[in-house]
Amino acid sequence: MPLMSLTPHPSLPRLAKRWCSTFLLLIATTGTMAAAELEVSEARLRLLPGDLPAAGYFTLTNTSEKGVTLTGADSPAFGNVMMHRSVNQDGVTRMEPVAQLELAAGEQVEFAPGGYHLMLMKRARPLVVGDDVEVNLHFAGNQRQRVTFRAVAPTAQ
To answer: Residue 100 — φ and ψ, nearest 5°?
Structure first.
């Protein structure tokens, strides 16, 4: 009876590398496939002085044939990002947290002053007007879309 070799087959590492690369590529693209059917325009980040929170505004359009749910956001430039909505009730404006926002197929929602917006808190680094800031929008099903926001003055709409 011949002795079995304890050394692995010479092509095994190459096959394992290919399999791992393919698997990682599938994982990486799965989260962005549906997000590719979403259009983000006019992405801007209104900076306030010092450590005051910044506000993120943009227009989100669902160009797909099915609904999507925006569930949150994060940014490497901020320690905390939350979705909010400004509500005016009996002449008093207040902000409410928004856990998720559903967009039907073909629907568009505007994140703008006086309505939906992102609150970006705990700056991780100094920012100035004109800087580009990366923000990741999170959607149901573990999908994400990276968006570049332009930092604008506090008086910008």
So the answer is: -160, 160
